[in-house]
Design brief:
The protein has 20 helices and 2 strands. It has 403 residues and is mainly α. Strands 1-2 form a two-stranded antiparallel sheet. A hairpin with a 2-residue loop joins strand 1 (60-63) and strand 2 (66-68).
Length: 403
């Protein structure tokens, strides 16, 4: 403690100020842009101050451009009085929220965007320019985002917690962060209930139900999805009602009831025809898939082909890959093995390019089946092995064991 105190007293005023504020950061480490938001200084200045703290052995650059503090040093920093801490933490939350919001836009231009107020002064979000940059940022900051959300919850900043949950959905789903997806939306639902906002509650129940469904916790999924439908109706939120019907379709399919899955998917499609064309295309592919599971193959192909054309028309690559995967399945059923391999391979390549590891794993498993049916066992084994590795990394043990 004496050594830490001596090093702290040797800092200049700006360095000491950042040191005290770094104790406010909730996550395991910090980058220059987040430090700049904490201290309300330019990023270049934050980078210089962080380097000075590292030279004083009060922070460690454990990765290039990323700094962390030993627990005892962080405790010492928190013990130093600084009335600016509440404002600094609010700047940090807004930095993460607005950067994550922009990153989610890049990962999926057609996601349901969360409406947020302008960032507070000094919280300047990090500028992301490409989907690859967004993926890298989410990977680097993921634990910090989760920790910041928990710290905001502890301060009863309910709207910010609900908004942060919304910005994390695409990354968590694409990377298969299943348990985090559940935990995030438990917090998001509690925040929405504290806000007394029926529409926010409806979306939170829908996300939590979907998260439970992916985890094969079927009763909990059904409970939350049913509640989402009720609240969406009360709030006259047509988009949430339609999205929840699609989630119910997937939930019932995971329980092995394709008839009920199709009924919910068709209901969703009727609702989506009153909304945007990309959502309608998603619903068309969903209906097509469950028609195929019920052996209504010609109807299924028409729906999936229409979905593929709409997705391509509107430049939605994720939806294009889903439709290609469905068409590959239909080709395999019809004995068109070369076409099945081509469609599944195209879908897997798109998902890989998009960084959607969750869907890439599923599509590789489908591709392996197509290769096996086409009499190409070596290629089938390679695709199954890649699917298995992704499933294991995502802790999707049921799928990994099946593969």
């Amino acid at each position: 403690r004496a050594v830490i105190s001596w090093s702290y007293r040797a800092l200049d005023a700006a360095q000491a100020r950042l040191f005290r504020l770094l104790g406010t950061a909730a996550g395991p480490d910090v980058g220059p842009a987040a430090a700049a938001a904490l201290a309300a200084v330019p990023v270049a200045r934050a980078r210089t101050l962080l380097a000075a703290l590292a030279n004083a052995h009060l922070a460690q650059e454990h990765l290039p451009g990323r700094y962390r503090m030993h627990d005892l040093i962080r405790l010492f920093a928190v013990e130093q009085p600084d009335p600016e801490r509440p404002a600094a933490f609010r700047r940090l939350v807004d930095f993460y929220l607005h950067t994550a919001l922009h990153g989610a836009d890049l990962l999926d231009p057609h996601w349901r965007r969360v409406d947020v107020a302008a960032p507070v002064a000094g919280a300047g979000p990090f500028v992301l320019t490409t989907a690859d940059a967004a993926r890298s940022w989410f990977d680097a900051e993921y634990e910090n985002l989760l920790a910041t959300s928990r710290a905001a919850r502890d301060r009863d900043w309910h709207r910010l917690v609900w908004q942060l949950a919304g910005t994390l959905v695409t990354h968590q789903r694409q990377q298969g962060h299943g348990s985090d997806y559940i935990d995030t939306w438990r917090q998001g639902l509690a925040a929405a209930e504290a806000l007394d906002d029926p529409s926010a509650q409806a979306w939170a129940h829908r996300q939590l139900g979907q998260a439970y469904s992916r985890a094969e916790q079927h009763d909990r999924a059904d409970e939350h999805l049913r509640r989402a439908l009720t609240l969406a109706g009360q709030a006259a939120d047509l988009a949430c009602e339609a999205a929840t019907r699609r989630s119910l379709a997937r939930a019932w399919a995971r329980r092995g009831d394709d008839h009920r899955a199709l009924a919910h998917a068709q209901h969703a499609l009727r609702l989506y025809r009153r909304l945007d064309p990309v959502s309608r295309a998603r619903a068309l592919n969903t209906v097509g898939w469950y028609l195929a599971q019920l052996h209504r193959y010609e109807q299924a192909r028409r729906h999936c082909a229409e979905a593929l054309a709409l997705h391509r028309e509107h430049g939605y690559a994720d939806g294009e890959a889903l439709a290609l995967d469905s068409l590959g399945y239909l080709d395999r059923i019809a004995g068109r093995h070369a076409a099945a391999v081509r469609h599944h391979r195209q879908a897997a390549e798109i998902f890989r390019r998009l960084g959607n590891a969750y869907k890439e794993a599923d599509t590789l498993a489908h591709l392996a089946e197509a290769y096996a049916a086409a009499g190409q066992p070596h290629e089938a084994r390679t695709a199954w092995q890649r699917a298995h590795d992704l499933y294991r990394a995502q802790r999707r043990h049921t799928q990994a064991d099946r593969v």
